[in-house]
Design goal:
alpha/beta, 2 domains, 10 helices, 15 strands, globular, binds nicotinamide-adenine-dinucleotide
Length: 333
């Protein structure tokens, strides 16, 4: 069988992790082209996988030998590049967040629905082994009725990140730390608990150089009745131990991230604890695997534009709540 021929569009920070993930799935896909206006970044990708460096996005669109594009570009480009790529008959893996505004997200959802190509929403947290295993344990009734979730995402913005200036301009990125980083932990919570019903939030800013809000606390009600809290910050040195989520049920607790992979706590377990995942699997590898399952094997989308739109709406509802000082229903967004 012919391997999926993929073009990288945008070869910045995150592209290196995607490159490694594709190399781990090289029986299914190969990176055949790379484009970045900063040509040396495309060169760096090409030197590791033998891709051809091209001079424009249009050259990728026009190349019939390219089956799929991997869009890893700043957020203001997501809508237009998705439109053009689907129109050129390419499958698309679009990095989070879906767009910069709800209108852009709605447009992207429509584009996906009216195309026969795959539009995959590139949010890692939907396909991590941790989130999928936690969801399965919850659905098997291992924690009983879900009562509450506690999520934390804190990633100090420094080093390489500070060179991605577009990130800190909300007119280009669409928001602050919650949209850029906290959305990953929100996505983990939604993967396990399902959709959000309403949110109220407080946001603040410790580091003006980061543009939008850099720290927020959300109080969430989920459609399944559980309550949740999410702390998201780009102004705190909490990395490691990294993001964490606790899912608290009437009969047990699932705990992931921080210093453990995924643990189940119940009174009836030996030492009241069972480790559900022993080893850590690379989340990028899991995501690209799930995407290829869909494109190459026809399996159901593990991460859809509709889901990306929902998560974007929760973030925007949090911003609106902080501004207006009231609880926002997601159905208002
Ligand atoms: N964990 C994650 O899943 C994760 C982490 C970081 C970033 N991201 C997402 O990945 C995307 C890229 O983020 P990044 O951190 O790699 O940013 P980055 O700034 O390092 O990379 C973006 C690249 O796009 C290039 N670019 C600019 N205009 C372009 C155009 N018209 N066509 C093609 N390329 C263009 C830039 O030159 C740059 O190299 C964003 O959507 C971001 O939110 C996801």
């Amino acid at each position: 069988m012919q391997r999926l021929r993929v073009a990288f569009v945008g070869c910045g920070l995150i592209s290196q992790s995607h490159l490694k993930a594709y190399l781990a799935h090289e029986n299914w896909a190969q990176i055949v082209a790379a484009y970045d206006p900063a040509r040396e970044r495309a060169d760096a990708i090409a030197s590791e996988c033998g891709a051809t460096v091209v001079d424009s996005f249009e050259a990728i669109l026009a190349d019939e030998k390219i089956d799929a594009v991997e869009l890893m570009t700043p957020h203001h480009l997501h809508l237009e590049q998705t439109r053009q790529a689907l129109a050129a008959n390419k499958h698309v893996l679009l990095q989070k967040p879906l767009g910069r505004t709800l209108e852009e997200c709605d447009e992207i959802v429509k584009l996906g629905q009216s195309s026969d190509r795959v539009l995959y929403y590139g949010e890692l947290s939907h396909t991590t082994q941790k989130a999928r295993t936690a969801r399965q344990a919850y659905r098997q009734g291992r924690i009983g009725r879900m009562v509450a979730l506690q999520g934390t995402y804190a990633h100090w913005q420094g080093g390489d990140y500070l060179h991605t200036g577009w990130r800190y301009d909300p007119s280009v990125s669409g928001g602050g730390a919650l949209l850029d980083g906290g959305i990953h932990t929100l996505a983990t919570m939604i993967t396990v608990a399902g959709p959000v019903h309403s949110v109220s939030a407080m946001t603040t800013r410790f580091r003006p150089e980061l543009g939008g809000e850099d720290t927020s606390v959300l109080s969430i009600t989920f459609a399944n009745g559980a309550l949740g809290t999410l702390l998201s910050s780009h102004a705190s040195h909490l990395w490691p131990p990294g993001p964490s989520v606790r899912i608290i049920g009437e009969d047990g607790i699932l705990s992931m991230g921080g210093t453990e992979t995924l643990g189940l706590y119940r009174d009836d377990l030996p030492e009241q604890r069972e480790v559900l995942i022993e080893e850590w699997l690379d989340p990028f590898e899991s995501m690209i695997g799930a995407y290829l399952d869909c494109v190459v094997d026809g399996q159901e989308l593990a991460s859809s534009a509709e889901l990306g739109r929902h998560e974007f709406a929760v973030v925007m509802a949090a911003y609106r709540s902080a501004e207006e000082g009231r609880t926002i229903l997601i159905s208002e967004m």
